[in-house]
């Protein structure tokens, strides 16, 4: 039997994952500075309220509405504000599913989408599984990261269908500036492209610039069709509930929503329990986000304090999100450094190349890591 090219030719773990597994099997401790699953980071959840919301008896009645329950879309629209209409929303089981549906909507096999670089290594496979190609467009860094509009022009071809941006980016933390947003919308309108804006980390600004784009919803009438993605995974720290959404605005909004609804109707993947609980979970979200922001700031301060004693090391600005990029003395590759660090000191970090950060000398740390683990792990890194 032959498998399609939509899946990898090899499913073998990379060297870092294999070494981590070997240590765990041997009973050796791993200080994991890559953890991004909030349910594994020691946060205190309002457990009973969450369980009560998920146990709503109304979910026993199946009401398969492709766009999702009106009441749930109303709750999401109220959460976002900025005049968002529930009819502009389509519910999904996750942001990954939202990407898949949008790629189905926009592209045919052989078409491409322009995606950010550096970025989380997800877009390649999400696009490939829809028969499309993800073409990375590198950002450039001068004091802070910047969107490369010239790079977009050079990468755009006759089969390009959309541009993807993550606001703020993962892992660079780069928020789009308002001038960048205006230029990006003009670019997409000029070339007849859709603009896909992933805002899962938008609620977590840190060293954000004053001119940042807080949300794409600030623009009520963009000149191109805009798809905004978010979900409970980051908004309410509940990735296991599996509820995401797409908000659509722009000149072809009505047609895009109608076709997204058709696609959603083929899957009907959003669970009744997630939809029924959404209003309560969004009401609880601000308290959970406060806990996360406190953790992010505390770990960032710890990192800065420890870096004072290690002048050969530094970090890049963290405008937003859950990651920090550590700049190390570039002796050898980042991957070999990460392997040696894990094998010798038991500290797990991501090498910069994992996210397509150009060059060597970068490590990516999760600021969501429990504070004691983060302090101990960074200390060992700087001693290495």
Task: Give a verbal description of the structure.
The protein has twelve helices and 15 strands. The model has no long low-confidence stretch (mean pLDDT 96). With 384 residues, it is an alpha/beta fold. α2 runs antiparallel to α10 (272-307) and α10 (272-307) packs across α12. Helices cover 39% and strands 17% of the residues. The protein has two domains: 15-44 and 285-383, Aspartate Aminotransferase, domain 1, CATH 3.90.1150.10; 61-283, 3-Layer(aba) Sandwich (Aspartate Aminotransferase, domain 2). The chain has helices at 15-25, 47-54, 70-80, 95-106, 123-128, 149-155, 178-191, 232-235, 253-267, 272-307, 334-345, 371-383, and strands spanning 31-32, 89-92, 112-117, 133-138, 140-142, 144-146, 160-166, 194-198, 226-231, 244-249, 314-315, 323-327, 347-348, 350-351, 362-366.
Topology:
Elements lengths: L14 H11 L5 E2 L14 H8 L15 H11 L8 E4 L2 H12 L5 E6 L5 H6 L4 E6 L1 E3 L1 E3 L2 H7 L4 E7 L11 H14 L2 E5 L27 E6 H4 L8 E6 L3 H15 L4 H36 L6 E2 L7 E5 L6 H12 L1 E2 L1 E2 L10 E5 L4 H13 L1
Parallel strand pairs: 1-13, 3-4, 3-7, 7-8, 8-9
Antiparallel strand pairs: 2-10, 5-6, 9-10, 11-12, 12-15, 14-15
Helix pairs in contact: 1-11, 2-10, 3-10, 4-9, 10-12
Topology-level CATH name of the largest domain? Aspartate Aminotransferase, domain 2
The counted number of beta strands is: 15
What's the helix count? 12
Going by CATH, the architecture of the largest domain would be: 3-Layer(aba) Sandwich
Question: Domains counted in the coordinates: how many?
Answer: 2
The first-level CATH class of the largest domain is given as: Alpha Beta
Structural class: alpha/beta
- General form: globular
For the termini, the CA-CA separation is 48 Å
CATH superfamily of the largest domain: Type I PLP-dependent aspartate aminotransferase-like (Major domain)
What proportion of the residues form beta strands (DSSP E)? 15-25%
Record the strand order, biggest sheet: 2-10-9-8-7-3-4
Succession of helices and strands: HEHHEHEHEEEHEHEEHEHHEEHEEEH
Q: Can you give the mean pLDDT? A: 96
Radius of gyration: 21 Å
Proportion of helical residues: 25-40%
Low-pLDDT windows of residues? none
Largest sheet features: 7 strands, mixed
């Amino acid at each position: 039997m032959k498998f399609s090219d939509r899946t990898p030719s090899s499913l073998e773990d990379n060297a870092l994952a294999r070494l981590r597994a070997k240590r765990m099997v041997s009973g050796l401790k791993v200080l994991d500075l890559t953890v991004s699953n909030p349910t594994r980071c020691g946060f205190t959840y309002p457990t009973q309220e969450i369980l009560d919301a998920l146990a709503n008896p109304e979910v026993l009645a199946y009401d398969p509405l492709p766009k999702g329950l009106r009441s749930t879309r109303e709750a999401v629209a109220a959460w976002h504000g900025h005049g968002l209409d529930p009819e502009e929303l389509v519910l999904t089981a996750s942001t990954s599913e939202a990407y898949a549906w949008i790629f189905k909507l926009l592209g045919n096999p052989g078409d491409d989408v322009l995606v950010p670089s550096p970025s989380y290594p997800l877009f390649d496979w999400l696009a490939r599984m829809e028969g499309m190609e993800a073409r990375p467009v590198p950002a450039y860094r001068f004091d802070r990261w910047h969107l490369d509009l010239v790079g977009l022009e050079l990468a755009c071809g006759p089969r390009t269908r959309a541009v993807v941006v993550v606001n703020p980016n993962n892992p660079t933390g780069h928020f789009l500036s308002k001038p960048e947003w205006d230029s990006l919308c003009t670019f997409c309108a000029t070339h007849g492209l859709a603009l896909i804006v992933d805002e899962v980390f938008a609620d977590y600004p840190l060293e954000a610039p004053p001119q940042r784009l807080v949300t794409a919803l600030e623009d009520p009438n963009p000149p191109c069709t805009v798809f905004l993605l978010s979900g409970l995974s980051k908004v309410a720290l509940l990735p296991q509930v599996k509820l995401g959404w797409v908000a659509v605005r722009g000149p072809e909004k009505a047609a895009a929503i109608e076709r997204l609804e058709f696609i959603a109707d083929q899957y009907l993947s959003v669970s009744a329990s997630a939809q029924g609980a959404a209003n309560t979970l969004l009401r609880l979200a601000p308290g959970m986000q406060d806990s996360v922001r406190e953790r992010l700031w505390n770990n960032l301060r710890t990192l800065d304090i420890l870096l004072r004693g290690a002048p050969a090391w530094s970090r890049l600005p963290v405008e937003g999100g859950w990651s920090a990029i550590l700049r190390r003395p570039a002796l050898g590759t980042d991957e070999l450094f990460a392997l040696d660090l894990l094998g010798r000191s038991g500290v797990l970090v991501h090498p910069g190349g994992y996210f397509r950060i150009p060059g060597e000398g970068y490590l990516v740390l999760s600021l969501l890591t429990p504070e004691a683990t983060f302090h101990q792990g960074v200390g060992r890194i700087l001693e290495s």
